[in-house]
Structure formats: structure tokens, C-alpha cells
Design a protein that fits this description.
Elements lengths: L6 H11 L5 E3 H8 L3 H10 L10 E3 H8 L2
Antiparallel strand pairs: 1-2
Helix pairs in contact: 1-4, 2-3
Length: 69
């Protein structure tokens, strides 16, 4: 499967902002996207952002794939 355009750029930004983490919390995702936690939760409930329900975390690669254009 081909990566979305911007995937590598988003991964670089994520790695700069969160160098020691492989998975991010909802709060960290909101900080990265520059939106509120409530907005991230709405994105999640609408299905436009898939975050693991059990851990409430998302891998940086999954986030980059989901928000890439």
C-alpha cells in the first residue's frame, strides 16, 4: 500500500516533538494538531481518527497515516 503524501514530513514532526515515544495520548495528539482534547475526542467519535480504545493511545505512524493528505 502506498503512503499518503506528507507521511514522512508528519513523521519527522512527530519525532521532533515526541522523540522518546512510540505511542501518543489524546492530550499529546491534541497538542500536536493544535486543537483541544474535545476536538480530538469528536474526531475519534466520528471515525476520522482511530485511537486504540483499550490503551487510549495511537502510534505515531498511525497518526501520520490518518492525518496525511
Amino acid at each position: 500500500m502506498r503512503e499518503k503524501e506528507g507521511f514522512h514530513q508528519i513523521m519527522e514532526q512527530l519525532n521532533e516533538m515526541f522523540p522518546e515515544q512510540g505511542m501518543l495520548t489524546v492530550t499529546e495528539v491534541s497538542r500536536f494538531l493544535g486543537v483541544s482534547v474535545d476536538t480530538v475526542q469528536r474526531m475519534r467519535s466520528k471515525g476520522s481518527l482511530r485511537i486504540n480504545a483499550a490503551t487510549r493511545r495511537i502510534t505515531k505512524a498511525d497518526l501520520a497515516r490518518q492525518i496525511g493528505v
